Amino acid sequence: MESTHLISIEHLKKHFAMGSGKFTALNGIELTFEKGEFAGIIGPSGSGKTTLLNIIGSLDVPSEGKAIVMGQSVGDLSARDAAMLRKTKLGFIFQSYNLLHTHTVYENVEFPLLLLGVEAELRKQMVKDALEWVGLTDKTNSRPAQLSGGECQRVAIARAMVKKPEIVLADEPTANLDAENSHHILQTMENLNREFKTTFIFATHDEKVISYIRRKIFLVDGKVAKDELITKS
Question: What is the pTM assigned to this prediction?
Answer without folding.
Answer: 0.92
